[in-house]
Structure formats: C-alpha cells, structure tokens
C-alpha cells in the first residue's frame, strides 16, 4: 500500500485537534475504529513493551483503521519502523533520534513531531527545520509517563507558534477547559480515551469541547 502524499498528510495535520496515543491491546482494531469514528485525528502506537514484529503487526492494524477513516497514523520513536510501514507521522522526544537523521531516513513526505518540556525546548521546536508539529507538557503529572516532571499549564500559556502544537499530559474531559483557557486548541491524550468505557463517545466529547 503506497503511503499518503506529503501535502495531504500536512493538510490533515493542519486540521487535527485530537491526537491519541495507545498501547497495543487485544481489541486494537475495534478500539481504533471506535476512537477514529469518534473524531480522533491522529492515532499513535505507543508501547515500549513490543518486539519489532508485534509492533509491525499492531501498526498494520492502525494504518488500516486510519485509512478507513481518512485519518493519520503515527509511529513513536523509531524512524526505521516508520519508514518500513510508510507511516504518516513519526513522533520524536528529546532523547530520541535527532530530527535531521530521521528526515534522512524518511524524506519529506512524512510529518515529524517533537516533544517539549520547557520554554527553551518549545522555542527550539517552533523553529527547528524538519519539525512539523510539537507537543508541550505534561500539563499534569501522569502515570502514563512516570518520572517526567510536569511544567504544567505555564508552558502552555508560554507557547506561541505558527506550527501546529498540542498540549499533553493528564488531560481529560474534566480539565480540558483549563487547557483551552491556557491557549491550547489541540491536545494529545492517552488514558482519557484508552481507559474510557465508550472510547467513541469519549472522543466525540473531546471534539465537541475542542471545537467550541
Ligand atoms: C504525540 C506525542 N507527544 C509526546 C510524546 C512523548 O514522547 P517522548 O517524550 O519521547 O516519550 P515516549 O512517548 O517515547 O515515552 C509522544 N509519544 N507522542
Ligand atoms: C507520553 C507522554 N509524554 C508526556 S505526558 C505523556 C503521557 C500522557 O498520558 P495521559 O493522557 O494518560 O496522561
Ligand atoms: Mg520517545
């Protein structure tokens, strides 16, 4: 299956407001379908426990689900795997592969995102060549990323960029209004959708709140 054209991926990124990271799970195909039907715009496999073959299998499921819904699928950390599966998006943290190296592997038709945790990193990601979007956070300490200190909403308030950027970390439907009031229009979530009894409804509720 050929990958999407880079312009189409960047158009979808420009329209994206809800980004979901999910671990692998036995019902991954049904879960991804529900989340994407509810309005998730980008779905990332984030699961450090997987062997490469398991990761490839899970990514195939996400790629097919994203294609069915006209949305984007993302690989975390690994440019080689992103290249192998023709991912739409690669997400890189501060301790991951440098962006220029990832670009060498992936070319220009893949969106690359960056994590940032303080004002200096945020400003660097806002200007760094080869970066398409970045994330700021955690907004609140979160068990999903243990040991990562939370810069909190101050970093969201400080963030200004022409590039798309997302707030991340501890965000749920009860505190989303605070994240929006701090200036974010796009969010990344994990537990708020992966732990939801009805992932489709949870995604729909996020989209309603993000569009108002
Ligand atoms: C969309 C998105 N934002 C942030 C992260 C976190 O990346 P990183 O800081 O490299 O931490 P790990 O996820 O690799 O543990 C992400 N994966 N996706
Ligand atoms: C991967 C990552 N990076 C910063 S916070 C975070 C996890 C966010 O997870 P949750 O939405 O469950 O708090
Ligand atoms: Mg990483």
UniProtKB/TrEMBL annotation:
Gene name of the record: thiE
CDD domains: TMP_TenI (cd00564)
E.C. designation(s): 2.5.1.3
Residues holding 4-amino-2-methyl-5-(diphosphooxymethyl)pyrimidine: 44-48, 76, 115, 145
Residues holding 2-[(2R,5Z)-2-carboxy-4-methylthiazol-5(2H)-ylidene]ethyl phosphate: 142-144, 170
GO molecular function terms noted in the UniProt entry: magnesium ion binding; thiamine-phosphate diphosphorylase activity
GO cellular component, one term: cytoplasm
Pathway: Cofactor biosynthesis; thiamine diphosphate biosynthesis; thiamine phosphate from 4-amino-2-methyl-5-diphosphomethylpyrimidine and 4-methyl-5-(2-phosphoethyl)-thiazole: step 1/1
Name by which UniProt lists this protein: Thiamine-phosphate synthase
Reactions accelerated catalytically: 2-(2-carboxy-4-methylthiazol-5-yl)ethyl phosphate + 4-amino-2-methyl-5-(diphosphooxymethyl)pyrimidine + 2 H(+) = thiamine phosphate + CO2 + diphosphate; 4-methyl-5-(2-phosphooxyethyl)-thiazole + 4-amino-2-methyl-5-(diphosphooxymethyl)pyrimidine + H(+) = thiamine phosphate + diphosphate; 2-[(2R,5Z)-2-carboxy-4-methylthiazol-5(2H)-ylidene]ethyl phosphate + 4-amino-2-methyl-5-(diphosphooxymethyl)pyrimidine + 2 H(+) = thiamine phosphate + CO2 + diphosphate
Domain Thiamine phosphate synthase/TenI: from-to ranges: 18-193
Organism, as annotated: Lentzea aerocolonigenes (Lechevalieria aerocolonigenes)
Cofactor descriptive note: Binds 1 Mg(2+) ion per subunit.
Family: Belongs to the thiamine-phosphate synthase family.
Role summary: Condenses 4-methyl-5-(beta-hydroxyethyl)thiazole monophosphate (THZ-P) and 2-methyl-4-amino-5-hydroxymethyl pyrimidine pyrophosphate (HMP-PP) to form thiamine monophosphate (TMP).
PANTHER family the UniProt entry points to: THIAMINE-PHOSPHATE PYROPHOSPHORYLASE, THIAMINE-PHOSPHATE SYNTHASE
Amino acids binding Mg(2+): 77, 96
Protein's GO biological process: thiamine biosynthetic process; thiamine diphosphate biosynthetic process
Coiled-coil stretches noted in the UniProt entry, renumbered to this chain: 42-69
Cofactor annotation: Mg(2+)
Pfam families: TMP-TENI
Keyword vocabulary terms for this entry: Coiled coil, Magnesium, Metal-binding, Thiamine biosynthesis, Transferase
């Amino acid at each position: 299956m050929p990958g999407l054209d880079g312009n189409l991926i960047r158009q979808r990124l420009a329209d994206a407001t809800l980004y979901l990271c999910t671990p692998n799970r036995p019902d991954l195909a049904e879960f991804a379908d529900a989340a994407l039907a509810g309005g998730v715009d980008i779905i990332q496999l984030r699961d450090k426990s997987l062997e490469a073959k398991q990761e490839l299998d899970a990514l195939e499921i996400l790629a097919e689900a994203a294609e069915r819904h006209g949305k984007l699928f993302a690989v975390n950390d690994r440019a080689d795997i992103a290249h192998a599966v023709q991912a739409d998006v690669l997400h890189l943290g501060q301790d991951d592969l440098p962006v220029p190296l990832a670009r060498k592997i992936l070319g220009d038709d893949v969106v690359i995102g960056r994590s940032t945790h303080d004002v200096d990193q945020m400003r660097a990601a806002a200007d760094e060549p080869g970066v398409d979007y970045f994330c700021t956070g955690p907004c609140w300490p979160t068990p999903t990323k243990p040991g990562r200190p939370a810069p909190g909403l101050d970093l969201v308030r400080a963030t200004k960029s022409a590039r798309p950027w997302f707030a991340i970390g501890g965000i749920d439907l009860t505190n989303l209004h605070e994240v929006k009031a701090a200036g974010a229009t796009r969010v990344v979530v994990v537990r708020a959708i992966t732990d939801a009894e009805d992932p489709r409804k949870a995604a729909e509720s996020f989209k309603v709140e993000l569009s108002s």
